[in-house]
Amino acid sequence: MTTPTWYCVNAARERLGPMTADELRRRFDAGELQRRSLVWQAGMAQWQPLESVAHELGIAMAAEAPMPPPSVPAPPAPVAASVITAETPRAPAAEVAMAQAYAASSRDASATGGIDADDVVDAGFLRRFAAFIVDSFILGIAMYAIIFLMLIVLGFGVGGLATMFQSSAGGGLPEGPLLWVFVIGFYVLPFVMQGAYHIAFTGSAWQATPGKRLVGIKVVDEDGQRITLARSTGRWFAAALSYLTFYIGFLMAAFTDRKRALHDMVASTRVVDQWAYTANPERQQRGLGGCAIAIIVGGVLLGLVFTVGMLAAISIPAYQDYTQRAKIAEVVSEGRGMTVAIDEFLLATDRCPATLEEAGLREPSSALVESTDIGEIDVGQCSLRFTLGGAQAGPYDGEYLWFSHDGEGGWDCGGSMEDRLLPAGCRG
């Protein structure tokens, strides 16, 4: 597809473009442009009449018919005054001068996108989103650094963070000092840090956070002036409305007339290109730059990696607990079956068997059980105890499960590990 690079001036003295050479030819054929209509593209020193580049554009122009001489020379009539109206055609020299002024104001139109000196380029949603990614990354690193420092000072180490996430994923809250770290680190700290960050940078001489500055945008008032710290503070608190509207307030920047979010409307601010309201407005950039595109792509990928990592940090320990509970439940189920045979022995002999073989039992099949004891163990009642061990025991190596006859035909069940790892009938 041909790149539109041509500009022209029509009969109404309007500058049009950019457009392709094909469109120039169509406008000439339709009578919108004449032989002396001015055209320009990057690389030309000045605007030229269309007829001078007709061959380059592939426009066939018939030779101008010569003006017929007057039949009778007439003396020039006296002219009292010369009045130039809007309908009076201008001389080609005047038209050229006007067109040159157009060219000078636009500098290099191919580089500036046709931005005039009085144009203001508002920052679109995607440029603002790219800035948000950078700012969130900076704040996230600072916030987690403080949380890690708090955990280390309190003696929990990095593992304390996984514990907090596991508690949160389970619908609960961590206990003890971890609860304070959780509340401060994930509720108080983000609010304080984000507020100070956005208020200070937006109200500074930068007029932008580091993220906005990186993608080339800034915050101004409706007159294009730097905003005060007071207005910057109001704008930050107004952003709560954009959050409370389920982020619709932020999305408004994608379709409002001046690309303003809800908090911009409340605070009477605009987010514009960094070169707006400066001595070089022609440097403003329309659309996304390469930096913003790279930030958005990198931010999305980093977000996916972070999400997967956090899910792994939560789900892997939870899965490990689940598998251990399943193994322990298997041992408990096998133990309950063995108590039936022991009950039969008690009824037949009125005493507790001294060995498994005496009761007609074998060692449990579970690889989690390292050894089995039977007899009147510790509690003075007939008891069965499994000591856990081996490669599958993991952190529960040396822990035990026990069954004790209650003297009334029933059995109590328990274990030395945490209650959450035991079946409901063996807790407490």
Binned strand content: 5-15%
Beta strand count: 10
Assembly classification? single chain
- How many whole angstroms does the radius of gyration measure? 41 Å
Number of domains: 3
For the biggest β-sheet, the strand order reads 2-1-3-4
The average pLDDT score comes to 79
* Low-pLDDT ranges: 78-113
Run of helices and strands: EEHEEHHHHHHHEHHHEHEEEE
Described by the principal axes of the CA atoms, the overall outline is: elongated
Describe the main β-sheet briefly: 4 strands, antiparallel
Instruction: Assign the structural class, choosing from mainly alpha, mainly beta, alpha/beta, alpha+beta, or little secondary structure.
Output: alpha+beta
Spatial gap, N to C terminus? 78 Å
Helix content: 40-55%
Total of DSSP H or I helical runs spanning 4+ residues: 12
Question: Could you explain the architecture of this structure?
Answer:
- The chain is of the alpha+beta class.
- It has three domains: 1-62 and 92-114, Dna Ligase, domain 1; 125-288, no CATH class; 322-426, Glycoprotein, Type 4 Pilin (2-Layer Sandwich), CATH 3.30.700.
- It contains twelve helices and ten strands.
- The chain has helices at 21-29, 54-57, 92-106, 109-112, 125-153, 159-169, 177-202, 210-215, 229-244, 248-251, 262-267, 290-349, and strands spanning 6-9, 15-19, 38-40, 48-49, 217-221, 269-273, 369-376, 382-388, 400-405, 411-415.
- A four-stranded antiparallel sheet has the order 2-1-3-4. The protein has a four-stranded antiparallel sheet with strand order 7-8-9-10, with helices on one face. Strands 5-6 form a two-stranded antiparallel ribbon.
- It is elongated and about 130 Å long.
